[in-house]
C-alpha cells in the first residue's frame, strides 16, 4: 500500500492508485512475468563486461543521445530476424518497450485524444493512457480471443482514435494477429480522420510485438509492413525471447516520421551509456541470446498438451492456444485461491486476464516439473 499523505497535492486522478507490477517475491519458481528463464551464456557475459569496461572511463560525459550504434545494430537484428531492411532512422530504442509505448502516447495521445485497445490485453496500456491524459477505449475480442474485426473497425470509425493498439502475440492470451487482419486495420485507419487533430491526421496503428520471436517459424512480423504503411509503429523488446529483461531495452520500428515524433518527447540522454554498451554486446551474440527460443516453444507445446489433459471438478481445463512463452488456462471459480495455494507451495504464476484464468510462463525443465506437480497437488484440494 502506498503512503501518500492527503496534504500532498497529488494529481486528483491518481488518488487511490497503486504502482503497477506483479509481485517480486523470493520463491523457488517464478513463472509470473514472462521472462526467458535461462541465464546468459558466459561468452555474452564476457562481451558485456568488455563493452562496459570500454565506456566506463567516459561516463563523465553524457551518452549518445541518438544511440546511433544501437539503432544500426537493431536494424541489423530485424533484418536477420524478420527479413525486413529498415534504416537506422526508422528505429528507436528506450528503457524497455514500456518506455517506447509511453513515448508513443506522449507524442500521439494527450488531452482530447483517444487510444483504442482490444481487450483482454496487456494491463499497462490504460496506465500509459492515464499518465498522458489520453482517453482509453476498448473493442472486445471474440470468445477465442482473436480480434472482432467488424466491431473493432466500427469502434475506430465511431471514436476516431489517434492510436489503435494491438498486441501480437497478445498478453495474456498468447493469440497472434494474422497479417491479413493487421492489413485490414491499417487500411480502415487510413480512411478515418482523428478526433481532436488536424483534418488530414489518420490514426497510428501500434503493434506490440513484445513476444514475437516465439511465433511459429516462417510466419511474418508486422515490421514487414512498415515500408507500405507510414502509420504503423511496431514496438519490440529485448526483455523476453532475447533474455535481456534486466538490461531494460525496448525498441520501436516505424516510419521515419513516427520515430521523429517520438524524438520530440524523449528525455535528453534517456538511454544510458551502460545500457547501450550492454545491448550492443548482446546484439553481437544474437544466436546465443536466442538459443533457447526453440526449446521454450517446445516447452509451451508440451505444457499446453499436459494442461489440456488435466481435469478440475471432473471437467478438462481450458487452455488458450498460445504463440508466446506463456499459457492462459482455467477456468477456476476462485482463481485467486488457486494462485495463492500455488504461491504457498513455492510456484509463482499470475492471476491475470479474463475471469477464472491463470497465466503461466514457460520456465526451465525443472521449473515446469515443479509447476506440474504443484498444480496437480493444489487442484486436488479444491
Ligand atoms: N508489452 C507487453 C505485451 C508485455 O507483456 C510487456 C512486459 N510484460 C511489455 C510490453 C513491456 O516489456 P519491457 O518494458 O520489458 O520491454
UniProtKB/TrEMBL annotation:
PROSITE patterns: AA_TRANSFER_CLASS_2 (PS00599). Pathway: Amino-acid biosynthesis; L-histidine biosynthesis; L-histidine from 5-phospho-alpha-D-ribose 1-diphosphate: step 7/9. Keywords: Amino-acid biosynthesis, Aminotransferase, Histidine biosynthesis, Pyridoxal phosphate, Transferase. InterPro entries: Aminotrans_II_pyridoxalP_BS (IPR001917), Aminotransferase_I/II_large (IPR004839), HisP_aminotrans (IPR005861), PyrdxlP-dep_Trfase (IPR015424), PyrdxlP-dep_Trfase_major (IPR015421), PyrdxlP-dep_Trfase_small (IPR015422). Its EC number is 2.6.1.9. Its cofactor is pyridoxal 5'-phosphate. GO terms for molecular function: histidinol-phosphate transaminase activity. The modification N6-(pyridoxal phosphate)lysine is found at residue 240. It catalyses: L-histidinol phosphate + 2-oxoglutarate = 3-(imidazol-4-yl)-2-oxopropyl phosphate + L-glutamate. It comes from the Bacteria. Residues 31-373 form the Aminotransferase class I/classII large domain. CDD domains: AAT_like. Belongs to the class-II pyridoxal-phosphate-dependent aminotransferase family. Histidinol-phosphate aminotransferase subfamily. Homodimer. This is Histidinol-phosphate aminotransferase.
Amino acid at each position: 500500500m502506498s503512503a501518500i499523505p492527503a496534504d500532498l497535492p497529488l494529481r486528483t486522478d491518481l488518488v487511490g492508485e497503486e504502482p503497477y507490477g506483479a509481485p517480486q517475491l523470493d520463491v523457488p519458481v517464478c513463472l509470473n512475468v514472462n521472462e526467458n528463464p535461462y541465464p546468459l551464456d558466459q561468452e555474452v557475459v564476457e562481451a558485456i563486461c568488455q563493452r562496459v569496461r570500454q565506456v566506463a572511463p567516459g561516463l563523465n560525459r553524457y551518452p549518445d543521445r541518438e544511440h546511433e550504434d544501437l539503432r544500426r545494430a537493431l536494424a541489423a537484428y530485424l533484418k536477420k530476424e524478420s527479413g525486413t531492411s529498415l534504416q537506422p532512422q526508422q528505429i528507436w530504442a528506450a528503457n524497455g518497450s514500456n518506455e517506447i509505448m509511453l513515448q508513443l502516447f506522449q507524442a500521439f495521445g494527450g488531452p482530447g485524444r483517444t487510444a483504442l485497445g482490444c481487450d483482454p490485453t496487456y494491463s499497462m496500456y490504460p496506465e500509459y493512457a492515464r499518465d498522458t491524459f489520453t482517453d482509453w477505449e476498448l473493442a472486445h475480442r471474440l470468445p477465442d480471443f482473436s480480434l472482432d474485426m467488424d466491431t473493432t473497425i466500427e469502434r475506430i470509425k465511431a471514436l476516431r482514435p489517434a492510436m489503435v493498439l494491438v498486441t501480437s502475440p497478445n498478453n495474456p492470451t498468447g493469440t497472434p494477429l494474422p497479417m491479413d487482419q493487421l492489413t485490414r486495420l491499417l487500411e480502415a485507419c487510413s480512411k478515418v480522420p482523428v478526433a481532436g487533430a488536424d483534418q488530414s491526421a489518420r490514426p497510428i496503428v501500434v503493434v506490440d510485438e513484445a513476444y514475437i520471436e516465439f511465433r511459429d517459424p516462417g510466419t511474418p512480423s508486422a515490421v514487414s509492413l512498415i515500408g507500405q504503411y507510414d502509420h504503423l509503429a511496431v514496438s519490440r523488446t529485448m526483455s523476453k525471447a532475447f533474455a535481456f529483461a534486466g538490461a531494460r531495452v525496448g525498441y520501436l520500428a516505424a516510419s521515419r516520421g513516427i520515430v521523429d515524433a517520438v524524438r520530440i518527447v524523449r528525455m535528453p540522454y534517456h538511454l544510458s551509456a551502460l545500457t547501450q554498451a550492454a545491448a550492443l554486446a548482446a546484439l553481437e551474440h544474437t544466436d546465443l541470446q536466442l538459443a533457447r527460443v526453440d526449446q521454450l516453444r517446445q516447452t509451451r507445446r508440451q505444457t499446453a498438451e499436459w494442461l489440456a489433459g488435466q481435469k478440475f471438478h471432473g471437467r478438462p481445463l481450458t487452455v488458450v492456444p498460445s504463440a508466446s512463452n506463456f499459457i492462459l488456462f482455467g477456468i477456476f471459480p476462485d482463481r485467486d485461491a488457486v494462485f495463492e495455494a500455488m504461491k504457498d507451495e513455492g510456484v509463482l504464476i499470475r492471476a491475470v486476464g479474463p475471469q477464472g484464468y491463470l497465466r503461466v510462463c514457460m520456465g526451465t525443465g525443472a521449473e515446469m516439473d515443479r509447476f506440474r506437480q504443484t498444480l496437480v497437488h493444489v487442484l486436488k484440494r479444491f
